[in-house]
Automatic annotation (TrEMBL):
Its cofactor is Mn(2+). The gene is psuG. One of its GO terms (biological process) is nucleobase catabolic process. This is Pseudouridine-5'-phosphate glycosidase. GO terms for molecular function: hydrolase activity, acting on glycosyl bonds; metal ion binding; pseudouridylate synthase activity. The active site is at E26, K161. Transmembrane segments: none annotated.
Length: 305
């Protein structure tokens, strides 16, 4: 039934059938998360990094209504060049792209769904969506969190940006039973910085230990994802004051301009990037590469259990 909608790239399908490690990658980060051409360069570099670490990359998107698990270089270039012209697709949007034969850049939530359809357990990205600051009033809570509650994929990320309320994001995940694992850290990383005031649920120091916990969770039928939080390498971390000032300004501008709904996160990401010049983009790229390496190591370890 799924074949009717799903195209798994042959290399990815072969690897999955042979129980070899595969790492899923999202496409909203390409079309809506970084400017062209560095978005395309990064997406290709991330794939290369995963290969060098001994796993097969599967970048996920919707192309002309087909659910694609594994993209060609030309498709990645297209998604990067088209940028925000491509619809940002979360769970609710998938059927409309399919029925309308449209293109879609998949968020963390939608990428998890397509990864699960294909049988991929590990997904590497930059940052996850979460509970926005002021959500007590706006109800702005990313569908990524609900997906983590339901879908059996581990998401390797550098924590969440402090455009979000990290404390409320932790509370939401706790209610939904989603574990937050810190890789070699006790503190929840805040994307550009290695630490926040929030702690993780479990600190694990090796890919093997993380893979073992994933295996136990899913073999017991405990539904849902896991957040694997991997701090940005020290040499690329940004000064807290610089990044916080940019975030505060971006949030003020979003309020003034009445930006809400699915436009909110891309607006904030783009403004923070502009306000910090190229620095935050460099940091962003490095942390994604770092997550790709850890994702590949976890996928390796998981395939060897
Ligand atoms: N955070 C980032 N970079 C990103 C995103 C979030 O630092 O590119 C993207 C991811 O695709 C994530 C989505 O799933 O934004 C969340 O959007 P929303 O808050 O509208 O759910
Ligand atoms: Mn939202």
């Amino acid at each position: 039934m799924l074949e009717k909608y799903l195209d798994i790239q042959p290399e990815v399908a072969t690897a999955l059938a042979a129980h070899q490690p595969v790492v899923a990658l999202e496409s909203t980060i390409i079309s809506h998360g970084m400017p062209y051409p560095r978005n395309v360069e990064t997406a290709l570099m991330v794939e290369k990094t995963i290969r060098e670490a001994g796993a097969v990359p599967a970048t996920i998107a919707i192309i002309e209504g087909r659910l694609k698990v594994g993209l060609s270089q030309a498709q990645i270039e297209y998604l990067g060049k088209a940028g925000t012209e491509v619809t940002k697709v979360s769970r609710r949007d998938i059927p409309f792209m399919v029925a309308g034969q449209q293109d879609g850049a998949t968020t963390v939530a939608a990428t998890m769904i397509l990864a699960q359809m294909a049988g991929i357990k590990v997904f590497a990205t930059g940052g996850i969506g979460g509970v926005h600051r002021g959500a007590q009033e706006t109800f702005d809570i990313s569908a990524d969190l609900q997906e983590l509650a339901n879908t059996n994929v581990a998401v390797v990320c550098a924590g969440a940006k402090s455009i979000l309320d990290l404390g409320l994001t932790r509370e939401y995940l706790e209610t939904q039973g989603v574990p937050v694992v810190g890789y070699q850290t006790d503190s929840l990383p805040a994307f550009y910085t290695r630490e926040s005031e929030q702690s993780v649920d479990y600190r694990l120091d090796s890919a093997e230990a993380i893979a073992a916990a994933l295996k136990a969770k899913w073999e017991m039928g405990l539904q849902g994802g896991v957040v694997v939080a991997n701090p940005i390498p020290q040499q690329y971390a940004m000064p807290v004051e610089t990044i916080n000032a940019a975030i505060e300004q971006a949030l003020d501008e979003a309020n003034e301009q009445g930006i809400v709904g699915k436009a909110s996160t891309p607006f904030l990401l783009a403004r923070v990037c502009e306000l910090t010049g190229g620095n935050s983009l460099d940091a962003n790229i490095q942390l994604v590469l770092n997550n790709a390496r850890l994702g590949a190591a976890i996928a390796q370890a998981y395939s060897q259990i």
